[in-house]
Write a structure and sequence with these properties.
Helix content is 44%, strand content 18%. The chain is built from nine helices and eight strands. It has a three-stranded antiparallel sheet with strand order 1-4-3. α6 crosses α7 (192-208). The radius of gyration is 22 Å and the shape is elongated.
Length: 261
Amino acid sequence: MNDKVKQVLGTILEKFKSGDIPEAVAYSMFPVADIPSSKWSILNRTLMFLSGTQDGRGYRQWNEANRYVKKGSKAFYILVPFIKKTEDEETGGEKEALVGFLARAVFRYQDTDGEPLDYEQIELPDLPLIERAEQWGISVKAIPGNFSYQGFYSPVRKEIGLATKDEFVFFHELAHSAHEKVNGNLKRGQDPIQEIVAELSAEALCRIVGKRGGKYLGNSYRYIEKYAGELKITPYSACLKVMSETEKVLNLILKGENYDA
């Protein structure tokens, strides 16, 4: 087996041991903008996320986008199939067969300079309560997206990624980070209780900071209804079930570290 391939597989195994793989897989499933990595396998998108980026490309691909790899930057590696043409004994023609994998070097967007990309045109506004995220050591940044999803919070990387300027989405992800602090951790994946707490918190925060939270009510109801269905209870019962948790989350966001949850 190629040494680079062994290295890539070894990285994956180490991440399984550390518990980072489930989250990385979850976030790599998010749809992305029309960029080369959108066509990658789930394995390679997971490797990209673990490498700390949402956009990885080969050297030539960056050049084609009028961006250039910075001197001294280190590549990360993805796995690409090695297809070999062989003679088809039955037909006498050629056939293609997968004989293994090769490791291909790619570079993170963060390791390049040059022309801005289309998704970089998203400029985040001065988000209310962003100082709380900063206080907690959480970075907030714009990410590529195709509007099939709007944001995420990564507990491992202490990062909120936003594909929209909408403060409601920021509040939803900030609520996840506060919920993590209240409970000590978050369950991996789209846990119904966690999602309902985050959605209720976002609705409340919109009103508290004077934003028009009412415009989100329909979407929020459907969002909560979906996760309440997974719990086999009504949306009303689901909201009552998480009210105490939601209050703790809101108090922590509004009152800060001095609040005793």
